[in-house]
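Figure S7 source data.
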Amino acid sequence: MISDFYGRKSTEDGGRSVTSQEDVWRADCATNGFTEGRLFADPGLSASRFATKARADYDALVLHIQSGQCQMLTLWATARGSRNLAGWAGLLDLCRSKGTLIRVISHDRTYDISNRRDWRTLADEGVDAADESERISENITRGKRTAATRGRPAGRLTYGYAREYDKTGQYERQVIDPAQAAVVREIVQTVRDRGSLYGLARSLNDRGFTAPEGGLWQSAHMGRIASNPAYAALRVHCGEVIGKAEWPPIIDESEHYAVVATLREPGRRISRGTALRWPLSAVALCGKCKSGKLRVHRGGPTRTYNCPECQRTSINGDALDRFVRGRVLERLSKPDALEAFLPAGDDAQLVAAQKEKKALEDQMEGYYDAGLSPAGLVAMEARLLPAIEEAKAKVRRLSMPAPLRELEGVDVVGTWDDLDVALRRRVIEAVCSLRVDAAVPGRPRFDMWRLAGTRWTGDTMTWGERWTEEGL
Ligand SMILES: [Zn+2]
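Tokens for the predicted zinc ion complex:
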């Protein structure tokens, strides 16, 4: 009998790497008089649904079985075969159709899956564990379904509200937080009066109110709060109002629709600043003296940014604004934009969010490893995958520099020119360190190479080095 082995390194294998699995396989062959056949191993790749990389050797194994050359497939444990249940069932079907035996070393058994009982043993492995998880999952889904139909809050607490719990920690109700609710009403009123949201943000900060995610209020918060149906006690599911919520309203429904209409008025700029006019004033470092920050100068016919320290660097204002705007929007449009600008230090909230994400992923991995029934696995995925996605989004959000965090859910690139200048400036400062070198005599006054010393936050290369690499 030829024994072909498939091994994979898994995080849940008690530290048994492919190499040690391989040793066990060789010993298994020696003990039982099997001939060592082909070895398929995909070290380091998770077999779970979270793994996106193709498992090359697994595919080769499937081809090998399909060719009819595989007499016996040896696995360390059934979870090594495929943790994706559909994949596992497919592998069993394939082996059955080709007459391939499956040997599971950890069971010290060889299964002939043309035998119905053997097939069942492998297909239903871990029935007890499945039962247990089904029971847990059933209780949880039942609770969730009830919450949805009764209009109970789900997920993150909305600014303006507090949640009350009984002595055992069970959720009782969502109530109005009077101080925050007053802020919500003030925001709604300001939008309806077409007042300055920038001014309101400043005033809230001056009065010591903390923004929903902590930190300072920005005009970008206002539109989101003013248009949130939750304040009219309307329940939203997937972007649509689906009915009345259980919690008390802060504004009434007609007011909510009125404020939404105001925000949709054409030409309504929800956040236009007045204090600052030029986004790059005091942002770009002078490359000549390396201490001055270029400031707007409007002495001549054109606006320029000049170095107030050495007076040696001057650059066309409109051209610099336009160029930097272009680069920053291009950078923010890339899919990795937010991950790329990691915060400098560690952040307790971020660490907590990362732990939460890891715990959920480990939990799911545990279910994959437990060899649940297909129904059990589907139920656990339905419950955990959305939570994992949410946890990932949270980590992503907390990984953003604070100015980008304020803009979560805002189409930064699409609304860039409507954002107030102060916010645009903070975003620019968060994503890059601008440096403008003095003009080279004989070259045009605006030349992008004068910004060659600029660097994206967290990037080891300068813009100039990147441009050179790109062959510009
Ligand atoms: Zn200077």
